[in-house]
Each structure stands twice: as structure tokens, then as C-alpha cells.
Write a structure and sequence with these properties.
By secondary structure, the chain is an all-alpha fold. It is 62% helix and 0% strand. The chain has a single domain, classed as Globin-like. The protein has helices at residues 3-14, 18-35, 38-47, 68-79, 83-100, 105-110, 117-120. It is globular. The chain starts with a helix and ends in an 8-residue tail after the last helix. The relative contact order is 0.19.
């Protein structure tokens, strides 16, 4: 899946314009890089389109134990949107990642997120 198709899917699923979907995807990837360990971040970055992967540079403080609400708050703040839009967009990005990432890589990343991700962002996992 190319970056344009990825952004178009996020845009449609999150019900936001493509430019906003691009910013929300970037914010989600930055926050994801903070949440999962560096090795998983590098693996994920290696299988994504070049335009989607740059925010996935593992930060020094990766693997932070933040919950879904804090994850959404950070995306909201970074993208400059309210938390309702951020929550819907995070779900859209995760759903699109589930389709774009081959093999078990997506599940490996998701296994590092809190268990409540699946209950609080259920639309992200309908097709995964």
C-alpha cells in the first residue's frame, strides 16, 4: 500500500480531509513510537511507505507505559484537533496499519499497547 492510498483510507475512515488525515497519521505515528519499544518501531517503519514511516524514529524514551486516553490526548494535542476527532483518527490509522503491514508485524506492535485499546478503539480491529 502506498502512502497516498494509506492517507485516503485514514481520511475516509476518520471522516476528515486528506490533509488533516496526513497530520493525524503523523501524530499517531509519533505517539506510537513513544509507546512501543525501539525494535518494534524499527520493524514497523521498515514495512511502511517512506512518507508514513519517518515519525517512527524510536525516541530515547520509547516504551512509555501510557494508556489509550493519554495516547489519544497526545495525538489530539499534536494534530491540533479535539479528542473525539483524535480518537476516531487513531482507530482509523490502526485499522489502516492492520491492512498495510504484512505478516504478524502489526500484531507484534499491538501486543505492546494496553489491553483496553481493543475495547476503546473497537473500529480499528473489525477487519484485523
Amino acid at each position: 500500500m502506498g502512502s497516498d492510498e494509506f492517507i485516503q483510507l485514514v481520511s475516509r475512515r476518520a471522516q476528515v480531509p486528506e490533509e488533516q488525515a496526513r497530520e493525524l497519521t503523523r501524530a499517531t505515528m509519533l505517539t506510537l513510537a513513544e509507546r512501543v519499544t525501539g525494535g518494534e518501531v524499527r520493524h514497523l517503519a521498515g514495512v511502511l511507505p517512506a512518507e508514513i514511516a519517518p515519525p517512527l524514529v524510536p525516541p530515547e524514551d520509547g516504551g512509555q507505559k501510557i494508556g489509550v486516553d493519554e495516547f489519544v490526548r497526545r495525538v489530539s494535542e499534536r494534530a491540533g484537533v479535539d479528542e473525539t476527532v483524535a480518537r476516531r483518527s487513531v482507530a482509523a490509522v490502526f485499522m489502516t496499519l492492520g491492512e498495510a503491514v504484512p505478516g504478524t508485524e502489526f500484531q507484534d506492535v499491538m501486543s505492546q499497547l494496553p489491553n483496553d485499546v481493543m475495547s476503546q478503539l473497537p473500529n480499528a480491529f473489525q477487519n484485523v
